[in-house]
């Protein structure tokens, strides 16, 4: 169990929590496209023969966000592999760890040259951090750059991590239910939130939006 936990922590904290994919040296760097008046995500994607979602994800955006004239977009090369999220079945609905909900300040990214394997919420009025799903506290500790953090283990090999806490209010081995208190958020940082399923990395925003599948 100790060895498994150390392996898990290494995965979470490799380059500051995010898990970094191995870069393929043969990958072709993304090309670029200058947005023109009247362009849309779907139109550009069709023109460049790529998926609209992949195009938006590559640029750290979503297809619901507006494009701006003369904006430069990165376009996936023919050998560039962009994974939007791991294919998983999440049986339990994950709740937002902050109430009221805060906007996402930094989004999830699996890009080899700019990975970010979780999301960071904006620091707003929310200070109480709650469990996103029921589970067991498998680790609670401190790490430079991410303050105090808590890792929960859920069913089906799922783990969630909560970073940038000023104070932890749970102990290792404790069983928690959805929305139970985990700690108090640091005054000057937004919550860092990550979800893994075994060694697969999930997009926390998609898990929170989709809920149970």
Automatic annotation (TrEMBL):
Keywords: Signal. Residues 31-75 form the LysM domain. The keyword Signal applies. One of its GO terms (molecular function) is metalloendopeptidase activity. The keyword Plastid does not apply. SMART domains: LysM. Pfam families: LysM, Peptidase_M23. It comes from the Bacteria. SUPFAM superfamilies: Duplicated hybrid motif. This is LysM peptidoglycan-binding domain-containing protein.
């Amino acid at each position: 169990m100790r060895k498994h936990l150390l392996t898990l922590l290494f995965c979470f904290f490799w380059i500051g929590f995010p898990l970094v994919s191995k870069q393929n040296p043969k990958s072709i760097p993304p090309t670029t496209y200058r947005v023109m008046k009247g362009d849309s995500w779907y139109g550009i994607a069709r023109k460049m023969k790529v998926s609209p979602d992949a195009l938006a994800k590559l640029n750290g955006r979503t297809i619901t966000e507006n494009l701006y004239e003369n904006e430069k977009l990165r376009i996936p090369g023919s050998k560039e592999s962009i994974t939007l999220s791991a294919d998983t079945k999440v049986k339990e609905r994950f709740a937002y760890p902050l109430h009221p909900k805060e906007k996402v300040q930094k989004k999830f990214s699996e890009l080899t040259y700019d990975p970010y394997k979780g999301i960071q919420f904006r620091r707003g009025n929310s200070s109480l951090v709650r469990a996103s799903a029921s589970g067991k506290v498998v680790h609670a500790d401190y790490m430079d750059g991410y303050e105090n953090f808590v890792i929960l283990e859920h069913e089906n090999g799922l783990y969630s991590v909560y970073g940038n806490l000023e104070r932890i209010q749970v102990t290792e081995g404790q069983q928690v239910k959805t929305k139970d208190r985990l700690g108090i958020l640091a005054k000057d940082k937004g919550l860092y939130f990550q979800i893994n399923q075994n060694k697969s990395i999930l997009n926390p925003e998609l898990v929170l939006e989709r809920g149970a599948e």
